[in-house]
Every structure is written in C-alpha cells, then in structure tokens.
Amino acid sequence: MYIVKKTLEISASHHLNLSYESKCSFLHGHNWIISISCRAETLNQDGMVTDFSLIKKLIHEKLDHKNLNEVLPFNPTAENIARWVCDQIPFCFRVEVQESEGNIAIYEKD
After folding, report:
1. What is the pLDDT of residue 110?
2. Which terminus of the chain is less hemmed in, N or C, by CB atoms within 10 Å?
C-alpha cells in the first residue's frame, strides 16, 4: 500500500451556527493546518498515488483567505471541514483539521 500525505496551511474566517451560546458564533479567523492522507495499492501511470499539486488546487485555492461560511454549504466546524476535504480528493482516506493549537478534528473513511 502506498500512502502520501500533504499538509496545507489555510488562513480563513468562519462563524459557527450553534445550539448554545458561544463566542464562536461571531466571525473569527484561524490559520488552519490541514493534513490530507491518500492511499492506493498501485500507482497511476505517472508513478503517483495522486498529485500533490492537485490536492493544493482543490483545497487551498478554494479555502485560503476566504470566509468559509460563504464557500462551503454547511456549518464549517473542523469536523465538517475534515469530511468535506476527504470527499474532494481522489484516494483520500484521512484528514486532520487543526483550527488552533490543541484543537484537531479527524475524519477517516471506513
């Protein structure tokens, strides 16, 4: 099994729609660290699992320096972002989204 991992830093703002009072309901920003893991039993014709530049194009270009509430069709919690990222990338099986020091959400496909 081949595994590749790409880590991106995204600067983006968001606010959360929550069922309780929280300062996160107000617009605020993070320097998100997103780690994307992809795997395949065989390599493609170019000798890769997936191209690192494709991952950057699909995720970094869509999210960096954006208000995530305006570009994502869901409540942009770290957990929801992790799943969305995983669904965007071919062969992705695991995504870690760190929104601040010590706060990390992980999504793994079965």
Report:
1. 80
2. C
